[in-house]
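step 3/5: co-fold with 3-isopropylmalic acid
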Amino acid sequence: MTGTTYKIAVLPGDGTGPEVVAEGIKVLQAAGRAENVSLDFQHYDLGGERYLRTGEILPDSVLEELKGFDAIYLGAIGHPEVKPGILEKQLLLRLRFELDQYINLRPVKLYPGVETPIKDKGPQEIDYVVVRENSGGIYTGIGGITQKDTPHEVAVQSMVYNRHQVERCLRFAFEYTKKRAKKMTLGLVGKTNVLTYVYDLWERAFQEIGERDYPEIKRDYYHVDAACMWMIKSPEWFDVLVTGNMFGDIITDIGAITQGGLGIAAGGNINPEGVSMFEPIGGSAPKYTGKNLINPLAAISAAQMMMETLEATRVAARIERGVRRVLENDIRSLASGQMGLTTSEVGDKAAAYAAA
Ligand code: IPM
Ligand code: MN
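step 4/5: write tokens
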């Protein structure tokens, strides 16, 4: 059998990013070896350190190079000495936009052995996926500020969507629901009672596409504020949720905490026709940097999503097994510093389970 080789660009980034990414690579290599899949990693030092040293954030030449990989594996962006907004916009959001990663896929899955803050809910009840639109909405930064620093200053930041962006996101969500083949239910999260232009467009497109092309998929609709309540009260209703960029950002933090928090939550920035990028949802956690105490499971789960998206399903299944077994057998708490294991020990164990 001849093996497949995947070329992966690694962006460890800032803070604890490099530590968690190293464990992810360890598990990827162990799982890949067992399936005769080889992985070729190339590291890029993008992030706060390089910016402070050289003033560069994302050189155009690097962006071009990144387009030649099968996928991108990202650690964390955010540096305590860099003003908020700079690295987020010029690195993370620029990558998402320029690579047209128009989907942000965020599974909300509670694994056995993990504590959720929701009383009386377990892995049976908390298992759904949020499809967040990732290329438009308020995040495009259309707007401006006038008469700054005067009592009359005006600030505008517009929620902008075109039909094309909405439709491609909805189609991805319908397809994903079909492929997932669980409850065969797609819920649109919007705000049609107030955002009567933008979410009216979303809702009409949702109903049209669903009725015409996906009659087998049940369609639900939730206002975003109500969705926040139901994600706590009745998460078992959900199968796949789809929403715009800003709402998706907000509700996926709620989802993350219900699945055990940022130590476990992973996401994929997906361009179904291009280069996708996978990341743990948590930030750079500066206070844990270099201490070998940060929880790497979210980064390991992001690696699993990367393999799934590249259709290396057996490698992905091994990585998931690694995560599950560590949760069942080894780790005391998901909270960094309270795991009862170091960062690298979690990676070692997950790698051993993935290889077995
Ligand atoms: C996320 C983050 C980013 C976002 C920030 C860091 C720009 O919160 O990935 O959810 O808002 O999308
Ligand atoms: Mn966020």
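step 5/5: annotate
The pocket of manganese (II) ion (ligand 2) is lined by residues 249, 253 (CB under 6 Å).
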